[in-house]
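step: validate -> pass
step: tokenize input -> pass
step: predict -> running
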Amino acid sequence: MQFMFNVGLFFICWSLVGAFIIGCTQKIITFVSNIFIIHPILFFNNSPSFLQTMALDTILLLFFLTAGLLLNVVFYRLGTLGGYSFIGLLVLISIVTIIFKWYSSLFDLLSNISTFTLLSSLLVFSALLYFIITMAIRNASVNAA
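step: predict -> pass
step: emit ->
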């Protein structure tokens, strides 16, 4: 449990530092030259503040780090075949949503909610995902070499 607490603390710190580096780099590039950088926050706001950019980047980095840890746990628990089957299942779900055009209703839902609602729901989803990962790896054996 202490290991998972430290991993979670590292993910939070890394997300904050990474978002700060991304935000500062973007501000410096746009200040020095006339290069326009496409950022996901522009879907919600035409002139976002630095803190809004930091918040979105922090939560997105935290979500993707947690998703990567989930993929790591799936490969650890289920082996190579189970891990690749999990990736195949995710790809199959994506293909089915494209075939049946379920993505349009999801896009409409995401485009009509506020930035705060989206960020808070993504943060809660990341925390729940991390809790599930912690419970899944709780009984993992430790092999000291």
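step: describe -> The radius of gyration is 18 Å.
step: cleanup -> pass
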